[in-house]
Amino acid sequence: MNAPSASAAQTVKLDITGMTCAGCASRLEKTLKATEGVVNATVNFALEMAEVDHLPQIAANDLVDVVTTAGFEAKERRDEAEAAQKAFEEREAHSDAEERKTFQLFALSTLLAIPLVIPMVLMAFGVQFELSGVLQFALATPIQIFVGARFYKGALAALRHGGANMDVLVSLGTSAAYLYSVYNVFFASQAEAADLYFEASAVILTLILMGKYLEIRAKRSTSAAVRSLIALRPTTANKIVGDKIIPVSISDLRLGDYIVIKPGERVPTDGLIEDGESELDESMLTGESLPVHKNTGDQVTGGTINGSGAIFVRTTALGESTRLAQIIRLVEGAQASKAPLQKLVDKVAAIFVPVIVLIALATFAGWMVYSGDVTTAVGASVAVLVIACPCALGLATPTALVAGTGAAAKAGILIRDIEALERAHKVDTILFDKTGTLTVGKPVLTDAQAFDRNDDRLLTIAASIQLGSEHPLASALIRAAEERNLKLTRPRSIKAIPGKGLIAELTGQQVSIGNAALMKDLNVTPSMMGDGLVKTYESAGKTAVTVALGDRAIGVLAFVDQARETAREAVESLKNQGIRTVMITGDTELAAKNIADQVGVDEFQARVQPEGKNEVVNDLKEQGYHVAMVGDGINDAPALAAADLGIAMGSGADVALETAGVTLMRSEPKMIPAALDISKATLRKIRQNLFWAFIYNIIGIPLAALGLLSPVIAGAAMAMSSVSVVTNAMLLRRWKPKNMN
Question: Which of 346, 433, 561, 644 is flagged as catalytic?
């Protein structure tokens, strides 16, 4: 049979309930992958989610049935804004109910277990006090039944489907201790009846339940960032129909609809302001704490909060095409991805429980041979079963990844996946595109010198052919023409020449504007005056372009782009980390040197054509450098893709989200070292968690087998191991970019 074609695959996300440990996730993932029509599957224990790539021959409902058959429950996660919001609210309600139920059960279990623990505590102070075996039985039995039920249910489901998980270990360990004690109370001789483990089984279940409760709370905390993003999705909008304002559902909006956003309201979807002005709070998306002033012609993003003014907006994106939806999708994708180390963990988890059961049996047999004491043998084997639960291993990587990417997203740093984190950790060279990255990206026209001394005519011609262009120099020209109240004429047959300039037809004449290379290509007659002006402007660190009518130059324009205020500080921060900084630009040598000196980069390359940026990236990679490319995410997309790590700064455009490993939601150079910092911090936390999870089992299991750990201590250690791993990951939530306002 031919392997399924990945190119024809569709992706579905499933919310999974009923997983109790990494073994469950590993078993379910293996089951899904073995299903006919499934190309690939990833199951995330910490997020309780499965992402399945499947062929059209198998539907989402079929995948839900596969999960149900495997002993878990599943529900498709919908992408449509309204359905996604409803599903999110249902997940929140389910999580709240689970947390509340677990706490209530833990409180009941604690009340019943305390009397069983009191004799042990008093014994430590030399006070002999014992409860009768029947009373111990009466206190321990409700715990074994009601608390144990959740573990028995999970264990039976796992065994029924040919697997073994944490529930199997807990059920075997506590049941062995409980049933051994029941036998001694009701069926054994008086001498044997003294050996009771009721307090062990009860306290183990109570401690593990406490660990589960703390784990639930901690897991919800680590994923708080993406939950807060999902909560930003509005459900209604105020649509303008004629002279009426009608509240409608977001799903009823269409592209081009006219809506009003009142003061204090959340912006319902992406759009363009056609009337009004206000300040918008974009902190939840960009990490920018100060409100951003918006005026007619500015873009607004769904999920942001309007300030004091009413604004009238024309919708430009809906549903999953909105910027907020793209961000949520990117963050969720990053959190669901798996580190290479996690694959090793999954393999360990798959065989872990059967191996531990064998070790427990060997421990029991060994102690029986060595001492002949059933009590000692039961205690040691129960301790092995209890302490070995692999929860910490399953939580180590995903919780750190969720917390790290969540903290980054809150600061306006979007990390695509675990591979991007790995690559960011290795970066030793950063290439900056100059315009819009190290500079403001809004050049100002400083000089307009017409050879016939009619500067207004020169500016009118130059600005007219730039109408509709998105080039930064075009914006500067049009602004300058508007300031002089010049009347512009819309051009025809516009042709942009990347890295050189632009050609268009204006009132029947060919007009060109660009650098010396373009003028040479068009056989424009050289002008001594023009050449002298260009050199004069360039020697002053300005960008100079020539304007020509047909084959005759008619004037020269000069522009200046300012370096960003924080660019030098960002570059210094990177250099302090031992990272080499390089600026590349299509500008002249002198203009490039002017900016390079201002921001303090190690080196720069000038007159680099757009396609040449790829070559620079590849040359550095061939020399053995690990290269990050920082650009605006639009015209730098090929170079972003070619680099080891692409960092798109300040756009959040579709191409940035698709191409770059990291997208910075605002044009702040200091976010570049911050992105590398959170990447390194997250990887460091993953490695810490995996170390502690592995070392805990490596040390704990032999100690338990040697009889050096009582079952109660083993239960407490097992519960705390999971909590400590998740708590360690939660520390990443406190991360904030350094030296940011």
Answer: 433
Burial of 121 (0-12, 13-18, 19+ CB in 10 A): exposed
Report the Cα 503 to chain-centroid distance in Å.
43
740 falls in which pLDDT band (50, 70, 90)? low
Bridge partners (DSSP) of residue 75 are: 15
670 phi and psi angles, rounded to 5 deg: -65, -15
Identify whether the C-beta of residue 387 lies closer than 8 Å to the C-beta of residue 307.
Answer: no
The answer to whether residue 195 is catalytic is no
Neighbours of 46 (CB within 10 A): 27
d(CA 72, CA 341) in angstroms, rounded, equals: 26
In 457-531 the beta strands, taken as DSSP E runs, fall at: 492-497, 501-506, 509-514
The structure's pTM equals 0.70
SS3 letters across 279-331: EEECHHHHCCCCCEEECCCCEECCCCEECCCCEEEEECCCHHHCHHHHHHHHH
pLDDT (tens digit, 9 = 90+) per residue, 435-453? 778 888 778 899 999 988 8
Predicted confidence at residue 390, as pLDDT, reads 64
Residue 151 host element (H or E): helix 148-160
What integer pLDDT is reported at residue 652 of this predicted model? 47
Identify which of 112, 652, 593, 601 has the alpha carbon closest to the alpha carbon of residue 329.
652
Longest Cα–Cα distance in the chain = 119
The full length of the chain comes to 741
Lowest average pLDDT, out of 56-60, 286-290, 649-653, goes to 649-653
